[in-house]
Design a protein that fits this description.
The protein has two domains: 165 residues, Peroxisomal Thiolase, Chain A, domain 1, CATH 3.40.47.40; 153 residues, Peroxisomal Thiolase, Chain A, domain 1, CATH 3.40.47.40. Helices cover 33% and strands 23% of the residues. By secondary structure, it is of the alpha/beta class. The strands form two sheets. Strands 1, 2, 3, 4, 5, 6, 8, 9, 10, 11, 13 and 14 form a twelve-stranded mixed beta sheet that branches. The chain has a two-stranded parallel sheet with strand order 7-12.
Amino acid sequence: MGNQTIYFKKKPRIVATSTIAGPKECQGIIGRYVETALSDDMYGESTFEKAECKMLSKVIHGAISNAGLQRDDVDMIVSGDLLNQIISASFAARDFSVPFLGVYGACSTMAESLAVAAAFVDGGFCRRVVAATGSHFASAERQYRYPLELGCTRPPQAQWTVTAAGGALVAGEGDGVKITSATLGKVVDFGVTDVNNMGAAMAPAACDTILAHFRGTKEDLEAYDLIVTGDLGALGSRILKDLTWEKGLDISANHVDCGEIIYNVIEDEFQGGSGAGCSAVVLNSYLYSKMMSGAFKRILFVATGALLSTVSSGQGESIPCIAHAVTLER
C-alpha cells in the first residue's frame, strides 16, 4: 500500500509479552502493568551495561514462557538496543540457542523489530519470533552524553532515558493482538544538532512516516483509537502535532506519546522519557493490556529513533532520525 507500507495478509499476532522496568519508571502508571518491577536499577550486576543485558534476557525468556513455550519452540529472535554494536541484544542472544537478527533503529527499534518479526511470520519463514529491545538510563548517559559521576546539569529540553525492556512473541496463530501492517520510515534530518533535544530532532521523522501511512492506506484518523509515538516527549509531541496540522492532518484528538505516558511528565523528568526501552515497555505492558481487555481496538504504534553517535556529534553532524509504524488490532 503506497511505497512504504506493507500489508500482512495472514495477520501475525502478538500472543504474549514480557516487561521489566526500573524503580523510577515504576512510580508512574507503568508500574501497575509491568511484569517485573526492579527495586535497584543495577539488577544485581556490577555495571549498568550488564544490568541492561540482563533485563533484555529476562523479557526474551519471559515472552517465550508467557506464551507457554520453550526456547526450542522459537524460530528467531529480532532485537537491538542503544549500546555500541548492540551489545545488550547480542550478549542476551548468546543465552538462547535460537537464530538471531540484530537490528538498530535507536529508539524506534521496538517497531522495527515487530515489523521484521511480522514479515518473517507472515511470509511463512518462521512460526514464532521474539521481538525485543531495551535501554538503561545510566548506560545511555555514559555513551551519548556525560557519565553520571560528573553530575552535569540537565537542560530543560532534555528527556530521561528509560531503564526498561520489553519483548513480544509474534506468532502466526493464537489469541492476541494482530499486526496488520507496517510502514517503514525514511531517514529525515531537519538539521538539529542538540543531543539533548531528541524530541525536536525526531518529530519530523514521525510526521513523515505518519503521513506516508495514511497516504498509502487511504484510511481516516477515526479508524484508530490512538496514534502512539515513542518517544518524542512533551516538546516533541507538540512539535509533531504542529507539523502534521500544517500538512492537513490534525492528530491532536487521538495522539499520545510513550515518553509522556511513562513518567506523567512531572518536573524532575523535564520532557519525559526516551530510549529504546520507553516505547517497548509502554507497548508491551500498558497498551497491550488495554488492547487485550478491549479498551483499545486499533492503534498505530509509531516508534521514533535518533540515529546519532558520539563520533558524529563530536564531528558536528546533525541528527538524522527515523520512525517506523505498525498497525495493531484487537
